[in-house]
Amino acid sequence: SNGGGLILYSTNNGTNWTKSFTGAPNAFYDVQMKNSSTGYATGGNYFAGTGYCYKTTNSGINWISLPITTPNMQMNSASFVDVNTGWIVGGLPFGTGSQISKTTNGGLTWATQVTTPASTSAHIEIGMADANTGYLLSFIGTIFKTTNGGTNWTPITGYPALSWQSIKVFSPSTAYIAEFGTNIIKTFDGGLTWSTITTPSSLASIFSMDWTDLNNGMVVGTQGYTAKTTDGGITWTERNTGSSTITGVSLVSKDTVYAVCDRNVYGAIFRLYDNLTSVSFNTTVGIQGFWNGTI
Prior knowledge:
By secondary structure, the chain is mostly beta strands. The protein has strands spanning 6-9, 18-21, 27-33, 39-45, 50-56, 64-65, 74-80, 86-91, 98-103, 111-113, 123-128, 134-138, 143-146, 154-155, 164-169, 175-179, 183-187, 195-198, 206-211, 217-221, 225-229, 237-240, 246-253, 256-261, 268-273, 278-283. The strands form seven sheets. It has a four-stranded antiparallel β-sheet with strand order 3-4-5-6, with no helix packed on it. Strands 7-8-9-10 form a four-stranded antiparallel β-sheet, with no helix packed on it. It has a four-stranded antiparallel β-sheet with strand order 11-12-13-14, with no helix packed on it. It starts with 5 loop residues before the first strand and ends in a 12-residue tail after the last strand.
């Protein structure tokens, strides 16, 4: 998705893309499909005082705006455990407000949840393992956890004091969290202890990551940077898309990757087939460069 409420969808593995104009006034920052038909998208603009969550039930052809609790706060992330039960999070800039909203009826109604202690810093991303257990990243670097569906959100301790950017939750006990830098921390015991792995480049900062399992994952970031691992981050294969910052990535399988760029090259989508050692490029507006699979 990009600014102006535009969402793209494909029905042929990214060979062609169709535009869906939602009517939203600003950008979308997260899109999550729970099955081939039903999905949710969150977005807004901090400084314009807008925030929203849209829903599709026909595979992205049409999207409807849901009546969220705080339409004045940018919604950064969504995590749904099924088509009805999910959370959206966001907030306002400069530590002036945060929001956690939960729905159990597909977005018809929402309940506000709060952290303990209460946080006024915007929440960056949420990842729920199931209807009870999940993890929440705050803009100021705090990691919160719930084990009762969000009734209580409490801080986790014992991890480095860094600015966290992206999360992948595999189970109630296992989660990977990436900083806006080069480090990824892992927990296998629900946040009691953490280990750190580091991506190879000291020049690029991680914007997003995705994993198909504990071993196969990719990080993306500034200056077109990508790094892919098949052994849980012990070793990495670095590549560059030839574009500017890559803001999102999705691993359909360990060998099929989609990545998006919204800086300078407006609306670029990259596709990598690692098992075929070939790359395809799709764009909606302009081209800044091509990703040839090498640095």
